[in-house]
From TrEMBL:
GO cellular component assignments: early endosome membrane; EMC complex; Golgi membrane; plasma membrane
Keyword field: Endoplasmic reticulum, Endosome, Golgi apparatus, Magnesium, Membrane, Transmembrane, Transmembrane helix, Transport
Biological role stated in the UniProt entry: Part of the endoplasmic reticulum membrane protein complex (EMC) that enables the energy-independent insertion into endoplasmic reticulum membranes of newly synthesized membrane proteins. May be involved in Mg(2+) transport.
Main location: endoplasmic reticulum
Subcellular locations according to the entry: Endoplasmic reticulum membrane; Golgi apparatus membrane; Early endosome membrane
Membrane disposition: Multi-pass membrane protein
The name this protein goes by in its record: Membrane magnesium transporter
Oligomeric and partner information: Component of the ER membrane protein complex (EMC).
One annotated GO molecular function: inorganic cation transmembrane transporter activity
Family as reported in the entry's similarity comment: Belongs to the membrane magnesium transporter (TC 1.A.67) family.
Entry-linked PANTHER family: ER MEMBRANE PROTEIN COMPLEX SUBUNIT 5, PTHR21181
Amino acid sequence: MPATTLHKFTTFIGLISILHTAYSAAQHRSYLRITEQEFITLPIDILIQGIISLFLVMYGVMYIAGDFKEIRAVVDLENKSWETLRNLPSFQIFNHRGRSLSPQYTQ
């Protein structure tokens, strides 16, 4: 499924929201330092905003990243024959000095 503008916008809004959550958490910590209160936990609204933002970003990135591949290597290899399994075209060299040893070779 291709990434649409909606998915990109969802990811962008999620990232902005995560940044806002981080700023709110830092602001809350500085408020507690100023008022000399002990830090126990973040307020529930900051926690909920962070969790929702995380899920928005994960949803958007799943569609932007494209199709997932199977983790198991067997799925990719079961369609290949034994001859093509170890076929490495980058190591095939046809222009080598062995041709000069051939009886049909002429310079």
